TrEMBL record:
This is PIN domain-containing protein. It comes from the Bacteria. It comes from Candidatus Kentrum sp. LFY. InterPro entries: PIN-like_dom_sf (IPR029060).
Length: 103
């Protein structure tokens, strides 16, 4: 349902903002783009923001200004919850973790 919260985990944001290295990465990136287009209630936790920052800085070697730009974009696209509040969101049936779609 479009109004239900949709939680995007760290990997989802990393796929969205990095260049795909394979057809499989492109497929995953498309899933995230579709979720953002079709759902107005995107949720992310502060933990996800921290994890994504570390991946971009350490694994992808991005500079801090680029990472800050990504974080600002995420904050404009999603409702940011402290980890405690994100864990309190309703469970299966109302909070949909899209990670399940990414084997």
């Amino acid at each position: 349902m479009p109004g239900e919260p949709v939680f995007l985990d760290t990997n989802m944001w990393v796929y969205l903002f990095t260049d795909p290295r394979s057809a499989e990465d492109r497929r995953k990136q498309n899933i995230v783009q579709e979720a953002l287009s079709n759902h107005s209630n995107i949720v992310v936790s502060t933990q996800v923001l921290n994890e994504a920052s570390n991946v971009w800085l350490k694994k992808y070697g991005l500079d801090i200004d680029q990472v800050k730009s990504y974080l600002k974009t995420i904050q404009k696209s999603a409702e940011v919850h402290l980890i405690e509040r994100a864990a309190d969101l309703p469970g299966p049936g109302s909070l949909r973790a899209l990670q399940a779609f990414l084997p």
